[in-house]
Amino acid sequence: MPSRRVLSASDGDALVSGQLEREACVIQEEAQLWRERYRVLFDKNVAGVILTTPEGRIVDCNEACAQIFGFDSREEMLGHSAWDFYFNRS
User: Fold this and answer.
1) What is the pLDDT of residues 54-86, one digit of tens each?
2) What is the pLDDT of residue 61?
3) Which is higher by pLDDT, 6 or 40?
4) Is pLDDT of 13 > 80?
5) How high is the pLDDT of residue 6?
6) How far is 31 from 49, CA to CA, in rounded Å?
7) b/e map 17-45, b = 16+ CB within 10 Å
8) How many whole angstroms separate alpha carbon 69 and alpha carbon 34?
């Protein structure tokens, strides 16, 4: 029969630390999966999707959005400000 030993506080800390590391790894994997799902939804959406800052800087858009606004590519649209598409900015 294997001998048993009493766990010390440092052993408990190591166990907790290992558990936290495993949980952090799972959370990171799940976050990556959600980022990938979001990216597919964003990129493959037939509706135009645009992400801007309150100041009007275009952070991202999908190809459908660029085509709706008459651009050849999303990269071309990213060079513009969202304010460029308003008739009256006020």
Assistant:
1) 999 999 999 999 999 999 999 999 999 999 988
2) 96
3) 40
4) no
5) 59
6) 22
7) eeeeeeeeeeeeeeeeeeeeeeeeeeeee
8) 28
Residue that has been written with the tokens 């408990």 in this structure: 12
Q: Are 84 and 66 a contacting pair, CB within 8 Å?
A: no
CA distance 20 to 65: 42
pTM for this entry = 0.64
CA distance 23 to 55: 38
| Beta bridge mates, 51 | 60
How is residue 81 annotated by DSSP?
A: B
What one-letter code names the amino acid at 61?
Answer: C
Sequence-distant (≥ 6) Cβ neighbours of residue 43 within 8 angstroms:
62, 63
Dump the DSSP string for 13-63.
HHHHHHHHHHHHHHHHHHHHHHHHHHHHHHHH-SS--EEE-TT-BEEEE-H
User: DSSP letter at 10?
Assistant: H
